[in-house]
Amino acid sequence: MNKVYYMKAALDEAKKAYALGEVPIGAVVVKDDEIISSAYNRRETGKNALLHAETEAIYKACEKLGGWRLWECELYVTLEPCPMCAGAIVNSRIPKIYFGAYDKKNGACGSQINLLTMPENFRPEYEGGILENECTKLIQDFFRELRNKLSH
Question: What is the pLDDT of residues 127-136, one digit of tens each?
């Protein structure tokens, strides 16, 4: 499989969030070319600030693998991780992260800050811009629709 395939799977998760009225962010964790967990943003429906797509996908992967070290996994997420999620990535030892859209407001993989390159810490490899246009469009469409609802 390739990066585009897995990012499309993450986009499918993001669309589930969109359908629930959640900010459309999706994530999948891959090990040995197989998706072992998937999740989408559920902060509003779960009424919990910790229910980001990345943290949910990491949680499920840890449960499935029976441990907290995900050093043989990759994470694909439709939006550049925020500081909380970047911290979870570092702490779970995921060595490779791929994201779609850049988050110029809250991105913690280079857009605002970069928590993945802190000295004296685990430093995962990362690559942004995978299906960037599709990931960005989904988020923009969501907020455009939300603004239209609020203005009527």
Answer: 999 999 999 9
Given a cut of 90, is residue 63 above it in pLDDT?
A: yes
Nearest to 23 by CA among 40, 48, 46: 40
102 vs 132: CA distance, rounded Å:
8
Active site residues: 54
How far, in Å, CA of 46 to CA of 134, rounded? 26
**Full DSSP string of 75-104:** EEEEE---HHHHHHHHHTT--EEEEEE--T
pTM for the model stands at 0.95
Pairing of strands 73-79, 34-40: unpaired
Give buried/exposed letters for 76-105 (b at 16+ CB in 10 A, else e). bbbbbbbebbbbbbbebebbebbbbbbbee
CB 81 within 8 A of CB 51: no
Residues 21-29: what's their mean pLDDT?
97
Average per-residue pLDDT for the chain? 96
CA nearest to 143, candidates 97, 151, 82: 151
| Residue 141, amino acid | D
Answer yes or no: is pLDDT of 119 > 90: no
